[in-house]
Write a structure and sequence with these properties.
Elements (H helix, E strand, L loop, with lengths): L1 H18 L5 E16 L6 E19 L2 E18 L4 E21 L2 E22 L8 E2 L3 E13 L2 E10 L3 E3 L2 E18 L1
Antiparallel strand pairs: 1-2, 1-10, 2-3, 3-4, 4-5, 5-7, 6-9, 7-8, 8-10, 9-10
Length: 199
Amino acid sequence: MKKIILSLIVFGATISLASAQILPAFQIGLKAGTNLSSLNSTASETFSGSNRAGYLVGVWTRFGAVGFNFQPEMYLTSKNVDVTSSSGGVTRAKFTSIDVPLLFGGKFGALGLGGRFYTGPVVSFAIDKNQSFDSAAGKVFSLNYQDQNFAWQFGTGLDIKRISVDLRYEAGITKQTYDGRQTRISLFNLSLAYSLVKL
């Protein structure tokens, strides 16, 4: 009798692990979304930043097993921010870049519905840097945005069949310069993804 009970327990555990993605899985898809950029600065007496919306569009892949996954992505993103100097001059900056997040995380759920959490580094390569200046109110300065930047993402997501919704915070690591002071660009992004291939 004990052997039968033990066998049933082992069998139940095996089924549970299988439903928790113990077998390797692979997905590839498209994603698009919006972001909201902000400046982090300890020099608030010198300048301040205003949030502006941008966009992202690209591709993603996901490799997973035993409830954990690795999710590399590549997307085109626009990061926009207004910077106001202490004299009142406004710099409107728009940076377009190729972003490559390398995310690690976990997943839970079953029957096509599940939640995810993940974190990982992001490397960003600037391909276009545009700035406009409003000097009517005072002196303005350029925001010196680096050609290559690093950040760290934290996020959560919801999967419904082949559709995923992601909400992330991206903390800027690379320092940018404005009026001789250093700042970092961080952002929130909300995206919608669709899995083209799911194995």
